[in-house]
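Subgroup meeting minutes
Present: P.N., E.W., G.H.
Scribe: E.W.

1. P.N. recapped why we're keeping a running log of single-chain structure predictions: easier to compare across weeks, and new members can see raw inputs and outputs side by side.
2. G.H. added today's entry (298 aa).
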Amino acid sequence: MVMQKYLDKAEVLIEALPYIQRFNRKIIVVKYGGSAMVDEELKKNVIKDVVLLKLVGFKPIIVHGGGKEISRWVGKVGMEPRFVNGLRVTDEDTMEVAEMVLNKVNKELVSMIQSLGVLGVGISGKDGGLLKAERKLSGGQDIGYVGRITDVNPKVLYDLLEKDFLPVVCPIGMDDDCHSYNINADDAASAIAEAMNAEKLAFLTDIEGVYADKDDPSSLISELTLEGAARLISEGHVGGGMIPKLQNCIDAINNGVSRVHILDGRIPHCLLLEIFTNKGIGTAILKNDEEKFYNENQ
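Output recorded in log:
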């Protein structure tokens, strides 16, 4: 019985081998948000996953959000959070709080990475001109310092990866007049993955993946083509926050990212399970003509 347990572990390692070989030295962008950022145990698991990816030869980059934490701190200082069409109204005072909170979250993640023996470097989209932004309107309304990315200069990220650092990016951008803008972390992760021609982009979310029927959790789709993703949106099979996320996936693949994963960040080690096992656990979105990587008979 004890021997079988060790043999099972060996089988898992062997199953991971072709994936490690295929993606060695490839860039993977992980958008880190949702419950996995709030629960301390889940947070540690995500960071362990990303550190392991780095140690087996990947080149991971973390792009994190912090919406829940920003709302908490806005409340702490006596301000009322306001949203228009799901976007936070960000005046100068709110922007100041948002930038402080995101930088705090950023450095906490760096500390966790370094506690595992890997050198992490936390930057914002302002550093090295990484994310250039302009004001984003919501349904024609001005909602303050909420940004839309106009350009990505990935040089600082290439330099960090070349020197063997693990970059952690918080989604603050800057315009031509050096004003700061809060940027949606999904948008930032997608833009960075596109600019760096990443092999993979992984979104950690609070749902299992993409459903064929948005009201039926048993209809989880393991692999989805671009064509299939576009059809789900056009036929109304996905709703709410999944529509912009799926659109980000489509845009990323159309702009050079090889494969995009939507994962349930509430599942411990979801990144490893999706990337290193034959079946995976979330939804992988791929080009129409790309072959499935796993062998369905395994």
